[in-house]
Amino acid sequence: MALALAGFALPGAPASSVAAVGDPVAAIQHQLVKGRGVRVVVYNTSNNGDGWRHFKPTKGVVGFGDGKVMATDLVDHQMQGVRDICIGKRIWQYKPWGNDPKGKKWVTYPWKCDLRLGAGDLRLDKPAVLAAVLSTATSERPSGTYDSVSTTLHQGVMTFRQLWEVRPELRPKREDESSSWPIEWRLWIGKDGLVRRAWVTWRESDQSSLKGATNGQGWFGFAEDIRYSGWGTKLTIKPPPPTQTTAINFPKH
Fold first, then answer.
1. Contact 32, 124 (CB under 8 A)
2. Are 105 and 94 in contact (CB under 8 A)?
3. How many angstroms separate the first and last alpha carbons of the chain?
4. Three-state DSSP state, 104
5. What is the DSSP letter of 252?
6. 167 inside domain
7. Within its chain, how far is the Cα of 139 from the centroid?
8. Which residues lie below 8 Å from residue 223, measured CB to CB, with a gap of 6+?
9. Is residue 224 domain-resident?
10. 212 and 220 Cβ atoms separated by less than 8 Å
11. Are 93 and 82 in contact (CB under 8 A)?
């Protein structure tokens, strides 16, 4: 397997001094610089009408630059270790159980990468979104230690309509009763303002096209629990060598 990133196992170090200590919005923005990143472990749970199902974690790194997420390198252990490297609008995928007939280890194709930092649709890398989430907090208290850092648990509830105010691209053309449905969230934040754990749970409507898919439940349930460590780790995510890659380019319409 190609070495696609540098510094993956290095201990985290602040990308720069945090201007407003304890302010998560400012603290995270100060991390989003070129050549830095954070390690993530993602636990997903879903409910399709037959109870909650827990999935094996996805592990990897998220790379930053120019005030945003630039690339991700993630291994999905639920999918038998499939590794996806996403940079911009292209993905490189490695499947450990088989290679290309020509002996290539990787396949690459155009793909709009999900370059995000957050849980569910609650984005930590978007200042307006994170500020809106924190404004709906109902409580905060000292909590556990993550990444060797003592944290304060902030938790609250926001509706989809409140989320759409700061993420209008997610607003459906026609709102229904689900616009008032709750999105429950929890953020474990260190004294430096950096999030060490993010948890969110929400429901999505059982649309008519999927009628019956939830065994009469009427909604799909989701929960995402993410652990962040090594904020500020030196990191450069690169594509695999072309000699090990088969390219698939979709025809333009």
1. no
2. yes
3. 34
4. coil
5. P
6. yes
7. 24
8. 44, 45, 46, 52, 199, 200, 201, 202
9. yes
10. no
11. yes
In a domain, 12, yes or no: no
CA 165/CA 159 separation, integer angstroms: 10
CA distance 73 to 237: 7
Dist. CA 89–CA 82, nearest whole Å: 19
Domain total of the chain: 1
Q: pLDDT tens digits, residue range 173-211?
A: 877 778 999 999 999 999 999 999 999 999 887 765 555
Domain membership of residue 11 (yes or no) is no
CA distance 108 to 93: 6
Contact partners, residue 36, CB within 8 Å, separation at least 6? 15, 63, 64, 232, 233, 234, 235
Q: Give the separation between CA 189 and CA 228, rounded to whole angstroms.
A: 10
3-state secondary structure of 162: helix
**What pLDDT is stored for residue 208 in this prediction?**
55
Q: What's the rounded Cα separation, in Å, for the pair 4 and 7?
A: 10
Phi, psi of 158 (to 5 degrees): -135, 155
d(CA 74, CA 116): 12
| pLDDT one-digit tens code per residue, 72-119 | 999 999 888 899 999 988 999 998 766 666 778 899 988 878 888 999
- C-alpha span between 4 and 93 (Å, rounded): 12
Structure tokens at 170: 């997610």
**Residue 154 tokens, joined:** 């902030």
CA gap 195, 38 in Å, rounded: 11
Least confident of 6-10, 86-90, 163-167, 174-178: 6-10
Phi, psi (deg, nearest 5) at residue 29 = -60, -35
Residue-level length of the chain: 253
Entry pTM: 0.84
- Residue pair 103/244 in contact (Cβ under 8 Å)? The answer is no
- Whichever domain contains 193, its CATH number is 2.50.20.20
